[in-house]
Amino acid sequence: MADGKDDPAVFTSASLPSDPRLLATVTNAYLGTRVYRDILHVNGVYNGAVGDTHRADIPSPLNVRMTVPGAESLAETFTLNTRTGTFSHVLQSTDYTATHQIYAHHSLVHLMAFSITIQRSAHTTQPITVQLRTPFVPKSRDLDLNQGPDFQGAHYVYGKTLVPEVEGGPRPTVHMLWTPVPQDLTLRGEERERSWEFLTAVAESEEEVKRSYSKGLALIAVGSLHSSHAHAWTMLWRGCCIDLDGPLPLRQALYGCLYYLLSAIPPRGNLGFLFHGISPGGLSNGTQGEDYWGHIFWDQDTWMFPNILLFYPEAARAVLEYRIRMLEGALRNAQEQGYKGAKFPWESAATGREVCPEEIYGAQEIHVTGDVLMAFEQYYCTTQDQKLFREDGGWELVGAVAQYWCSRMVWSEEEQCYHIKGVMPPDEYHYRVDNSAYTNAVAQRSLNFAADVARDFLIPVPEEWVDCAKKVKVPFDAEKKYHPEYDGYSPGEPVKQADVVLLGFPLMHPMSSEVRRNDLEMYEPVTEMDGPAMTWSMFAVGWLELKEVQRAQSQLNKCFSNITEPFKIWVENSDGSGAVNFLTGMGGFLQAVLFGYTGFRITKTSLRFNPAFPDDINKLKVTGVSYFGNKLKFTITKEEIRIKVTESPRDPPASPLEAVLEESGQQFPLREGTVSLP
């Protein structure tokens, strides 16, 4: 079991999990692998035609195991330190300590590295040798790899992916340089301590790979390769942290979720590469037949994005820029299905075309298009970044989505409203249904947002957008006062995952607290117990809204059966099936704390909050909340809420920042400094 007695952010174990899928991951926004895995992946590099496209497997020079042959009574530990983004393996005897560290450099995203350090204890003088076992072979089933000349002591291979996603589509070239790994390393008798560093550089051009490798060598020369990486992680944690005075498993879960999610986001400043989004299992996974092939789903926009946005709007913008670059593919998807505007694919990879291997999802699970737009809306409300919309393609995307929803609706003479027919809701047990409550509500929200942006930019709002938004049917049973999942849903029918409960949050669809409660009570008992991991977080948020704190906690506690030891890797389903390193579930869990316990709600006009948390939590501190260019720190106890403005934008907005207390509607102006509310 993990032993994190002292620090909830450090996961240590004397052994590795028997299932290699549950090993810790080391990734940055561009490169990723699991420790001791023979392959790594590059963000946005896929191989294979539409239904088969998957992350291209690149042979990993980091797959090295350190052993000491013939040694007696060695103490062995494996540690993931989420504070420094570093995995380490330590072998300790009475005579020496050997440490193997592995990491993906957070700020120099083209670099991954490992080091071996041998340190002797005072009383010995004989040589100490560690063996390095590596099965590395520079071959790939997804790339046509060629050997190039060595560069500054590194071996070099490069090659194109074999099959483009669509005919004439991109076939990126991958270039890799790596430090050759010897079979063993020896600390000589007269040496007390020595470290050896091994670099891997990967890029999509020869120039970039050589530049990155040289940069790595220069940092090694001054002894600061690992410290520059650790510093980047320190800065990352400084800008965003959730700390609570509460049970250790909960604190460990939060650090684990944040580590794996933050590992996937672009660093601050100029990226130097095009970010291709975040898949359910992250960059460490996504080979053929695993973790949905590394494709991008609504998981990114609905489940991960709100957490990223709250802390790192710049990284959130990169996620949206990926969707903007995929707009052309989305326009083609809609056209092929006979509709106008843009239909985002259920599964997206390098082109924005539908790459789901099974046709039914691409054809019917269309709520993803609204989910994409909801991320744009949340970003707009949080940042007021008009440039993304006016100059960088955001408005074209917004307009195209509105157009799609209008063309997807049909008028019902009988009911005098618009219907959306033949869809699969988030609950994938049902398909070809009419008027999915979630799908129609998200379509309505898309249209309302599009009209709002048009008004802000003084663009005439098409009548059709207003009409369709006003008259689209969102099923409601006036007698039972709840939302049926779709036309003809019978209470008690089993549901695969969170669906109607998402109307309350994140959709914030207008309803009374009685209806909100009825929805929760109707769907909680019929939702698949072992279904996808993000489900129970959303039930928890619902109960927290209603101040039913214990009920919320019992829902959130269900998530712990999806967290594996010792490295807090999430599995999609609690029986261990589905995706691993399931960032979607982690995103839902973080939202339950970030938006549930605090009650944060981002609206057009304000950042609202309405805290509620269980008895075993005494204090919750959320550092680094971004709003309109300000950075805020919230400290919430049972007695008071303190809000501190830690950073303000250089050009403050015309209207001053203020906090609004939900229950009373009281307004508190926020300036640099701290305000306390009872």
UniProtKB/TrEMBL annotation:
Molecular function, one GO term: protein-glucosylgalactosylhydroxylysine glucosidase activity
Q: Which GO terms describe its biological process?
A: carbohydrate metabolic process
Choose one Gene Ontology CC annotation of this protein and give it: cytosol
Q: Which residues form the Glycoside hydrolase family 65 central catalytic domain?
A: 284-490
Quickly give the catalysed reaction: (5R)-5-O-[alpha-D-glucosyl-(1->2)-beta-D-galactosyl]-5-hydroxy-L-lysyl-[collagen] + H2O = (5R)-5-O-(beta-D-galactosyl)-5-hydroxy-L-lysyl-[collagen] + D-glucose
InterPro entries to which the protein is assigned, alphabetical: 6-hairpin_glycosidase_sf, 6hp_glycosidase-like_sf, Glyco_hydro_65_C, Glyco_hydro_65_M
- Domain Glycoside hydrolase family 65 C-terminal span(s) in chain numbering: 601-647
Q: Which UniProt keywords apply?
A: Glycosidase, Hydrolase
Family per UniProt? Answer: Belongs to the glycosyl hydrolase 65 family.
For this entry, the protein name equals Protein-glucosylgalactosylhydroxylysine glucosidase
Species lineage, top-down? Eukaryota, Metazoa, Chordata, Craniata, Vertebrata
